[in-house]
Specification:
A hairpin with a 5-residue loop joins strand 1 and strand 2 (about 60). This protein has a two-stranded antiparallel ribbon. The chain contains one helix and two strands, in the order αββ. The model has no long low-confidence stretch (mean pLDDT about 90). The chain is mostly helical and about 60 residues long. About 70% of the residues lie in helices and about 5% in strands. The N and C termini lie far apart (about 55 Å).
Amino acid sequence: MTQETIAIMGVGIAILAVVVPLLLFTLNSVNKLSAAQHRTNEVLAALANHRHGEDGAATFTLPAD
């Protein structure tokens, strides 16, 4: 291998060393946001589907965690 090839490979490895952790961090953040959105949707559905008892008190059926 020539020095140029080795240099190009080194730069590629360095770029991967920076990009991969950032990509993993971003994916983790997206997964957390997705889970929070899912739970919010469940709570909103429960609020929208609430009922009132004979005494007028609201009754909510929240999904289990």
